[in-house]
Amino acid sequence: MKKRHSPLALMLLCVLLGVAAPAVAKKPARPDAAPAAVPDAPALGEAAKSALAKVNNRVAHIDTNGLKALLQAKPETVVIDVRNPEELTLLGGYIGTAYFYNIPRGQLEFQIDTFVADKKRPVVVYSNYNQRSPLAAGALMQLGYTNVKNYADGFFAWKRAGLPVKYADKALDSFLYSKPQEVIPGVWSAIGATAPQTYENSGHNNNLSFVITEDGVLVMNGGANYLLAQSLHEEIKKLTKQPVKYVVLENAQSHAIMGAGYWKAQGAIIIAHKDAAHVIQQDGDKLLEATRARLRDKAFKTEVVMPDRVFEDKLELKLGSWKFEVLHLGPAHSPGDIMVWVPEKKLVISGDMAFHERMLPLFDDTNTAAWIKTWDRFEALGAQTIIPGHGRPTTIAEVTKYTKDYLVYLRAKVAEVIKNGGSLQDVYKVDQSPYAHLDTYDELARVNAGMVFRAMEFE
Ligand SMILES: [Zn+2]
C-alpha cells in the first residue's frame, strides 16, 4: 500500500509554496482552472454544524474587502491556506501575498510554529468554503495566537474579485493513487487503491486506463470525481498532445461516472451502456450526494452528467489505426457492464467483468448464474492481456480463476447448504478459504455468500 504524503514532503511543499511568492506576480503558466460558478459547500451533519457554530462564535471573521485592506495596511500579515496542496494546484491557485503559507488543516497545529513564531503577528486563514478555515482559526487561538482572523468568503471570492492570485508552477501533486503505467505500447493504466473509496485515496480505487492513438485518446472510466479526472488528464498530457475523444464508462458505479463532467467539459464523447445510463438518470443525484459526503472538498466541481452515446450490445469506434469494440456481453457484475476490446492487440479493458486481486463484490442486482454464462462469451474473445476493473493487468487464466471459478465454487457451496435445509447463518460459514488471500476478502466473503443464498432460494 502506498502512502501519498509524508509529513516531510508536505512540509517541503509548504516551504516551496511559501518561498515561491516573489513580489512580482508572474503570469499564470497554466490555464485558469477556477470555475465560473462555485458549487455549494458539501452538506454538513448536525455534529459538524454545531462544532462550526461554536467556533464561529469565538473567532474573528474578515470579508474580501477587509482582507484587502488588512494586507495594504499591514503587509506583514501571514496568510495561511489550509487546503491540501493539490487543491492549490488543481483549483486555480492561491492568494498572492508576501507572507503566504500552505499548511493543510490536519498539519496546522504541528507546523504553525515553524512558520509563524511570533504569536502576536496578524494571521489570516482561508479555504474553499467557510468550513475548514474557522476551525483552523479556532485552533490557532487555542495555541495562543492572539491576532487571528478567518477569511470567511474563501478563495474563490478573492479570485472572482480579481485580486492577486498566484499559481503553483507545475502540478505538485495529483489525485491519482498511482501514476499510469504502460501495459502494451500505447495502452496505459493508473491502478487504483484496493480499499473502498476514501477521502485519502481521493476515490481512485479502480483502474483508469487510456489508449493513445494517432488521432486522439480513448479513456476507460470517467473516474470518481472531477478533480481525479483532471489529474488523469494531466498525466495523459505529459504523454501526448492528442485530445481525449472518447470516455467509456464501464458501468454506472460512482468511480466510473462521477468524473465524466470533467471529460465532457473537455469535449470528449461519453459512452455508456443504455442500462448504465438508466441508473445514472435514476440514482445519479444519490451517488453525487454520497460522493460529496465521502470526499468533501475533493468532490469539488463534481456533477452528474448523462452519457452522450449509449448502445445495447456493441459499439465500434475507430481512432487513427486503432479499432475498438465496446461490448456488452451480457449480465455480469452490475447493470450496464461494458468492456473495451481491441481485437488486433488481443487486449481487453474488461471493467468489472473480471476480477483477480480483490474478491469480486456481489450486489442485490447481480445475477451470478448469468455472470457465469456471460463469462463464456468473454473467454471466447481470446484476449491475451486483460486490464481488469481493479488490480494489475493480467491473463485470462488468472481472472477465470478468481471470477468464474469463484462464482461456480460459491454457488456449489451455497447449493449444498440449501439442499441440507440450512439457513442464512449456515451460509455465512461456508468455507471460502481458497480465496482468503484476496484483497477485500474480509469485507466481502460473507456478504457474497448471503447474496448467493438469497438469489438461489428463488432459482
Ligand atoms: Zn469496480
Structure description:
Helix content is 37%, strand content 17%. It is α/β, with parallel strands linked by helices and 459 residues long. The protein has two domains: 7-25 and 43-166, Oxidized Rhodanese, domain 1, CATH 3.40.250; 181-351 and 386-394, 4-Layer Sandwich (Metallo-beta-lactamase, Chain A), CATH 3.60.15. The strands form four sheets. It has a seven-stranded mixed sheet with strand order 8-9-10-11-12-13-14. Strands 1-6-5-2-4 form a five-stranded parallel sheet. Strands 15-16-17-18-19 form a five-stranded mixed sheet, with no helix packed on it. Helix 2 packs across helix 6, helix 12 (368-380) runs antiparallel to helix 14 and helix 13 runs parallel beside helix 14 (404-419). The chain is globular, with a radius of gyration of 25 Å. The two termini are 40 Å apart. Mean pLDDT is 89; it is low at 1-36. Zinc ion binds next to loops.
CATH topology of the largest domain: Metallo-beta-lactamase, Chain A
Q: Total number of β-strand segments? A: 19
Report the average pLDDT across residues: 89
Q: State the low-pLDDT regions, or none.
A: 1-36
Can you list the ligands bound to this structure?
zinc ion
Principal-axes shape call: globular
Second-tier CATH architecture of the largest domain: 4-Layer Sandwich
